[in-house]
């Protein structure tokens, strides 16, 4: 009997040798997925261009070579060869369509050139106190994004795609009974804040971010049903915040920064709180049962992209203490992140 073809996931969990092969092939596999998204191959297949020759003609690729990439994508189980040289998208592959629910297409592109160039410097980050990104581009990530609007747009969408997965869960996990006003600091496109405001009808919100990000968020906020309960404010979280609120949420911010910078941001947040106010951080805590599944790889991503880091509770508590704050609660959210509640000492 012919042995059925094994896919990547079978191999990854079989013998020790093959587990290592699986790990080593990760960057090649990631590149194939990126090609599928970057050149719209998944979208073309989904909309009916299923034959390799037709795909190659539309994209200006060499058919035989494209076929070899497609076969590896089949091995990764995102497409399936149904007839000779003809492919269909699998349910997993549909997650890579730009407009699908919970699409990971923008996230895929985030792991593209800039990320790869930063990753190539992982060993250098062990010797030089700079992020892999800074070593590769001689610039920091956020200043680079401000100069490259197209990449910045993808970055914002990727961040949103990442948060979408756990965003619905966040408002249910927050205790907002005695809170009337909330600010999302470094809130990006505003997806997290919109979700919270939509869940809690008594709340007023402020979306705070850099000017270029707020300018873009304005368009989206125009279509938000509860826009009359949200203000958009631009500024710099390293300077005193220009408002007072009962609660602050910061999602994926502190992990971008060194302890010193994180303390500065948290101190500004603390000073913007009304009496008995609180801060919620959405961050991966590297801590036993609460540690999200990708905690360690996210930690290295921070090292590469921003010189930041994911933190253990000990490390968080040191930063909180320096900013006059203390941790009062923390829980794991869908194994993707954690919600950490912090109050003034
Ligand atoms: C990793 S993104 C997180 C976005 C959003 N909170 C989320 O979870 O999807 C970091 C955000 O911090 C913002 N940011 C970076 N430096 C800032 C600064 N100095 N002042 C205000 N916002 C800043 C960026 O513009 C970006 O939107």
From TrEMBL:
Residues in O-methyltransferase C-terminal domain copies: 122-325
Q: Name one Pfam family in it.
A: Dimerisation
A GO BP entry: methylation
Cite the active-site annotation.
Answer: 255 (proton acceptor)
Query: What name does this protein carry?
Result: Methyltransferase
| Gene3D superfamilies, alphabetized | Vaccinia Virus protein VP39, Winged helix-like DNA-binding domain superfamily/Winged helix DNA-binding domain
Q: Which PROSITE patterns does this chain map to?
A: SAM_OMT_II (PS51683)
Per UniProt, the keywords (alphabetical) are: Methyltransferase, S-adenosyl-L-methionine, Transferase
Source domain of life is: Bacteria
Species in which this protein is naturally found: Fluviispira multicolorata
- All copies of the O-methyltransferase dimerisation domain together span 25-98
List the molecular function annotations (GO) for this entry.
Answer: O-methyltransferase activity
């Amino acid at each position: 009997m012919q042995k059925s073809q094994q896919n990547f996931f079978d191999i990854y969990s079989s013998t020790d040798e093959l587990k290592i092969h699986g790990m080593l092939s990760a960057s090649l596999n990631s590149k194939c997925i990126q090609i599928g998204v970057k050149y719209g191959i998944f979208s073309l297949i989904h909309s009916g261009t299923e034959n390799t020759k037709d795909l190659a003609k539309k994209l200006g690729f060499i058919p035989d070579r494209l076929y070899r990439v497609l076969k590896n994508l089949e091995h990764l189980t995102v497409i399936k060869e149904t007839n000779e040289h003809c492919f269909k998208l699998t349910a997993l592959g549909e997650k890579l369509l730009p407009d699908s629910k919970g699409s990971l297409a923008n996230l895929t592109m985030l792991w593209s050139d800039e990320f790869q160039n930063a990753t190539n410097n992982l060993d250098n980050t062990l010797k030089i106190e700079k992020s892999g990104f800074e070593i590769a581009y001689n610039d920091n990530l956020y200043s680079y994004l401000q100069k490259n609007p197209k990449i910045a747009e993808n970055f914002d969408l990727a961040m949103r795609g990442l948060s979408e997965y756990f965003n619905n869960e966040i408002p249910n996990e927050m205790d907002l009974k005695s809170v009337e006003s909330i600010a999302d600091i470094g809130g990006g496109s505003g997806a997290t804040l919109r979700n919270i405001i939509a869940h809690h009808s008594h709340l007023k919100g402020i979306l705070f971010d850099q000017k270029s990000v707020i300018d873009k968020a304005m368009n989206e906020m125009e279509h938000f049903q509860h826009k009359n309960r949200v203000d958009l404010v631009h500024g710099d979280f390293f300077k005193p915040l220009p408002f007072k609120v009962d609660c602050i949420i910061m999602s994926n911010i502190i992990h971008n920064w060194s302890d010193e910078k994180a303390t500065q941001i948290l101190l500004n947040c603390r000073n913007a709180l009304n009496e008995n106010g609180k801060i919620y951080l959405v961050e991966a805590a590297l801590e036993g049962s609460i540690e999200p599944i990708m905690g360690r790889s996210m930690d290295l991503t921070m090292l590469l992209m921003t010189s930041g880091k994911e933190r253990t509770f000990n490390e968080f508590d040191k930063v909180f203490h320096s900013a006059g704050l203390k941790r009062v609660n923390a829980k794991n959210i869908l194994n993707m992140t954690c919600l950490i509640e912090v109050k003034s000492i």
